[in-house]
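Dear colleagues,

I hope this message finds you well. In preparation for our joint manuscript, I am sending the DUF1013 domain-containing protein (Phenylobacterium zucineum) sequence together with its predicted structure, so that both groups work from identical material. I would be grateful if you could confirm receipt.
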Amino acid sequence: MPKATAVWLVDNTSLTFDQIADFCGLHPLEVKGIADGEVARDIRGADPIANGQLSRDELDRAEKNDKYRMVAQKSRHAELLKPVKKAPRYTPVSRRQDRPDAIAWFIRNHPEVPDSQVARLLGTTKATIDQVRNRTHWNSANIKPVDPVTLGLATQLELDAVVRKAADKKAKDAARRGDVDPDGPTLRPASETGAPDAAVSEDVADLPEDQAQDEAAFADEYEGDED
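The corresponding structure tokens are as follows:
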């Protein structure tokens, strides 16, 4: 807030326009306009000392020497407000050769996990993932799918979180498309399969005579056990 700071300095100090302009990053004519009430008329002044931008000693030194240029001090909150960027995942050199095996495991067992998540979890690149998927990797002949947890490239919690996130996204996409049919075959109701005894009788009738007798004897023995 350079203009708010300039307003406070104009109202509360004896600094020159050039000193205030240099400290606030403004033109001296803007500072003169602030002093004349033509600029920043509705802006409330901001105390740079209370904000931690300027020390009292620095201000006193500038007021005693009109050629002195004040130096802003680093705010004590600057480091806390600075966004913390997560460092790239480090993989020991001894484990880096196992990355293609872990990538192959993801491709075979969890194709729903996007390449960006795989790359972030394993500390690899999308180019390497494409090479493993397309079998153009230089070591394709020796790549075998292996769980990244077993290889020590990720923890079980990290792996579960990535897989769960991809599964949830897949479910939401399916619901959005209206695809609610279960995957894979399901059991048919008993009304469609028919009575078990009738089915057994028809199957026995189609068998050769010797085998039919054995099947009939087994059925009789089974009924006797039930009784």
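For the figure legend, we might mention the following. The chain is about 55% helix and 0% strand. Residues 193-205 have pLDDT under 50 and may be disordered.

With kind regards,
E.M.
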